[in-house]
Structures
1.
Amino acid sequence: MAQDTEQQASGGVLPVDDEGFVIDTEDCEERETAYRERGTSRPITVVGNPVLHKECKDVTAFDDDLAKLIDDMFATQRVAQGVGVAANQVGVDLKVFVYDCMDDEGVRHVGVVCNPVLTELPAERRRLDDSGEGCLSVPTAYAPLARPDYAEVTGQDEKGNPIKVRGTGYFARCLQHETDHLYGYLYIDRLSKRERKDALRQMAEGTPRYPVVPNE
């Protein structure tokens, strides 16, 4: 997920709170730095690339190859100045995303989710936020998109342990956006035809600030 223009000891299992959700707000700088410094930035795939438009494969091997991919995704995220990156955005057909995202209270969250599943919220808990949204795979384009201002995701960490992650505000948007990626959806797929056309126009007229993979 692209950073909103207005908001511009790795390898271990994160602790959990009393409700079983990961505590992803501690030692953020140290953990993100450790991932990133081991990794190598990769170019970002952009809308039109087939890998972005299909459901990714489940992660089944929690091995060194996955660890290397995660390190590279954190490195890529930093170069692209994003707040979340999904594996298919670096051309890899696997259900894993990383994030380094502030919530609306200014609290930083850093973590990894493999095989994410978004929890369906009951109607009484669905309060929509129609803030602007962008995507590293649709560079230079932004559009308002209504999403719930709270999100819960279940999945696994990089070691295969079951985890639950929750977020509010901008971080909730990030969790929903990145999970969407791994099931073949870009945020522009949730826009009206006119809004999607406008976003693609913005992309065509802009210049990405990070390396991208050109479509054939």
2.
Amino acid sequence: MTTQIAHARKLCLSLLTITAACVSALPASAQQTSGKSFVDDFDKINRGFWYVSDGWNNGAHQNCTWSKNQVKVEDGALQLSFADGKSKDRNYLCGEIQTTKRYSYGTYEARIKAGTGSGLNSAFFTYIGPADKQKHDEIDFEVLGKNTGEVQVNQYVQAKGDNEKLVPVGSKADEGFNDYAFIWEKDRLRYYLNGKLVQDVTDPSKIPSNPQKIFFSLWGSDTLSNWMGRFDYTKPAVLSVDRVAFTALGDKCQFPESIACTLN
């Protein structure tokens, strides 16, 4: 994926699509609070911990509007859905949540079942940018609807990307849950898939440094077909998140399967 496309696709926090709604979405005090280690099994959505995106889109490339109605907890998992539904100038609705706090070096983990459908993007990522008066830094896991047998890892440093790598999942990411994790340190960034190291970045110039918020999103595009596949909506899709965790460097691991346990 080109840097131009990557800049376009991110939530309205990106350089090209900042809106007043995004800038004012979170109180300044919440935006600047540093996050501590946590585990969320999504028995419910803690609205003080998570901000639910609602009422805007990321730009012309995104064919859906973020809607709070596409975000719920069901059967012990977070459910972000993509469905037909008119909102403003879009014919589809989609779901996204982001933490109210920022997080820095440590282990980030999520157990996810991706959404099904060509032209969709199921994403677990961290991000900070101009709406927070910071440079664009980002760390990504993205399952692209055209081939759910792979997941793309990538990172941005001060809005510079071009670090994409496609990693085989070993099955279909939309047919069952998989464990996605990355360990972010000052001089090293490691990506893991189902406990296996799949990407090891040691060039400091390619490692973000700014604390970031944690995001989950499911969205679609009519125009990014080369990257995400030709959009072909047939029925609603759902991205399910069974668990998410952050373990700060130096803290004890928080559940037995955690990658952070291997660091102790």
